Amino acid sequence: MSAFALLVFKLAAGLLADRLFGEPRRLHPLVGFGRWAAGVERLVRLRAEGRAAGLAAWTLAVLPWVALAAVLRAVHPLAHWPVDVVLLYFALGGRSLAEHAEAIAAPLAAGDLAQARTCVGRIVSRDTAALDAAGVARAGTESVLENGNDAVFGALFWFLLAGGWGALLFRLANTLDAMWGYRTPRYLRFGWAAARIDDVLNALPARLTALTYALLGRTRLALACWRRQAPAWDSPNAGPVMAAGAGALGVALGGTAIYHGRVETRPPLGEGAPPDAASIRAAVSLVRRGVLLWLGIAILIALAEPQVPIRFPGGGGA
């Protein structure tokens, strides 16, 4: 079995674990990492502020765990099997994303707007108290499309590129961007490194995610929306993902939203009818079919490779 074929086998195992078990209900590693990162932030801010302090905090928060993953893979010749599969399982959030989406779509479809607002408020940062049904559907659909990259395809990409430690690095960096990557007085400079590192790590996965959405939906419209609309978004990676995803679904997203009490008019995404509960479920289906497409392509590549064992001491594919 080639090194890549072995990696694909682990990838399938990690996807199966995510589908069967979902996120841990208690003692979730990312929750623990969030507390660790908050502690690192407090410690660093006692001594320094600014971009250099933010980069130092990022390094202290992320790299020790990546190093630990590398050490655990090396403690035994077979340790890479469980370590890589478990790291990918913890990095993925596919089932959790689908569960959160359905928790929004079900009450929305039943006309229970209050419950739908409550549930969408758990996965978006915008203010949801005054959202109408279309606003809830818009927020839910956008979140599914964007998190399809952050919680699924980005982790898969870095796992295929570097193994378990790659998926871990991506997910922790993405988590720090969600914690520190805000353009607020507190994080404008301190969070600069977290935001830029996430942009770099996400650059290729985001575009592959956008292409995946386009191939599995309304391809021409998705590509046209990606080309026209993505450059208008502040985020260089969220723009392609959400524009292509909205176009693939044939719905109109973007527009006005309220963040932390401030009204923001965002560029349009996609084209077509306003979103509804069915749009949220269609976005989930798009992500699920994309995962199957990625897995199928990875299997085909593995089968086409010469079946010559390759060893990378301490590397992602061993």
Automatic annotation (TrEMBL):
Where is the protein localized? Cell membrane
Q: In which pathway does it act?
A: Cofactor biosynthesis; adenosylcobalamin biosynthesis
Keywords for the protein's UniProt record, in alphabetical order? Cell membrane, Cobalamin biosynthesis, Membrane, Transmembrane, Transmembrane helix
Instruction: Please indicate which superkingdom the organism of origin belongs to.
Output: Bacteria
- TM region positions: 56-75, 151-173, 286-304
Does this entry carry the keyword Membrane? Answer: yes
Question: Sorted alphabetically, which InterPro entries does this protein's record hold?
Answer: Cobalamin_biosynth_CobD/CbiB
Q: What is the membrane topology here?
A: Multi-pass membrane protein
Task: Give the similarity note.
Answer: Belongs to the CobD/CbiB family.
What function does the entry list? Converts cobyric acid to cobinamide by the addition of aminopropanol on the F carboxylic group.
Q: Which PANTHER family match?
A: COBALAMIN BIOSYNTHESIS PROTEIN CBIB
- According to UniProt, the name of this protein is Cobalamin biosynthesis protein CobD
Its gene name is cbiB
